[in-house]
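seq/struct pair 1
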Amino acid sequence: MNAIEEKIEGTIHLLLYILQKLGGHSDIHKLFKILYFADQKHLVKYGAAISQDHYHAMKNGPVPSIAYDIYKNVKEGGTSYARYFSAVDRYSIQGITAPDLDFLSESEMKCMDESVQENKKLSFNDLTDKSHDEAWNQTGRDKEISPVAIAKAGGADNHMVKYIEDQLLIHSAKFE
């Protein structure tokens, strides 16, 4: 499995985990915001995101690009993810299998559980407003949001911000 396939597979199981916690289905706006806030929590506490996705500053808040591509494929009737998801309607998706928990650590599940509890009852507008945080505000529309900005917006202290910056530098050096 190559790096892209691993990222996609990991994203599938993150989405399935959140969907399971939401009763099996969700609109994509709520699903993506829950993932964003879980990633933010994990960055602040542990210096690493849960997903290997990149968030873009879209009109209604941060949108994870790999997760969005999965959703579009499912919505358009593609077969790539048909064994995992099905479209409920134009903006909703349901998980049709259980997540493989081998893809998730205890800390990741804890942050996702917290994010589900904090955000599952919020309305579309409340989730949009909440996700229009400092990271979203400082990023141009449709541009990628920096993980450092996401961590800062979540309240990461200076030591954690420095750690994240160092990790990003090391990661980028590996792929040059």
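seq/struct pair 2
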Amino acid sequence: MSEAGGADRPATIGDVAAAAGVAASTVSRALNNPGRVNARTRERIEKIAAELNYVPSTQARALSSGRTRTVALLVPDITNPFYFDLIRGTQHQLKAAGYTQLLVDTEESAEVEAEALDRLRTATDGVILTASRLTDDQIIATHRTRPMVTINRNAGTVPTVVIDTPTALRQALDHLLALGHRRLAYLGGPVNSFSNGLRWKTLAEELSARPGLEIVRLGPFAPTMTSGGPAVEAVLNAEATGCIVFNDLIAIGMLERCRARGIDVPGQLSIVGCDDIFGASFCHPPLTTCTAPIERVGQVATTMLLSQINPGLVGRAQSRRSLTLVPTHLTIRSSSGPAPVPVVAERSRDKDRV
């Protein structure tokens, strides 16, 4: 059979319908809802469609079935290695379920994020928001219009996956305390970041259980390596011997600045990051950081979203689940070590030996 579409254009649903001797609506049902068409007719239509190399458009599938088989993943910064494994986790899970992933970089901007959500309203079956910069009211209102899951952002009853960073932060505090550190700094991230607020809240609350330990809040800093230089200056001015940093990108930037200035890490300053991104284990020195199974986070979020899109595919317990915590732990590497001995104490000991 020759291609009805001709050399200049691809075959259309009308071409398939004409060749099969049926209405275009019958072709649509046969290819999108095969259970609604007689088996013999369906097989004939499928055979003709294959011979004509007919490929249904996303728009046509959406019009006939109300589904695009596409899910949008919105991330604040596509260049941040933290999102690499997350993107992989969501994509693998979506592919296995027969969905295509649409990746959107929202550029750390609430305005860009809101505009993207508005434009994607009819182009996707659901949305995964990562570290959203929108307000709670905006997220809740958007969830009313479509299936949605958030990652690291708890807004009302909107289904969410939260990385349990507080557990690893407590371990980080105990680790630095055991190394003799008594004055720490927290290098904060964006002011509208849910994760940033949660991390500072955790650290502040944990001080009461650790007498003799103090921590000063510095920042905010942009969550990029270029913030490492200003962050080092802020820590030195605060006279802290150790610090916990909003994310690994800032922490790695701090390591680079310390090396350029001849500041010994961890001899003069201990640095602990968050996220355990690609590169944290082979920077110089390797970074002590809070570790989470990021790819698993993406998989869990995708499963939660698909349970909204196709409630019949999962159990009732999964459909009702609104919050899932993913565990974390502290990974100790070479960027943290014993607190430096104060210069005054060193001189005192020298005097005693004379």
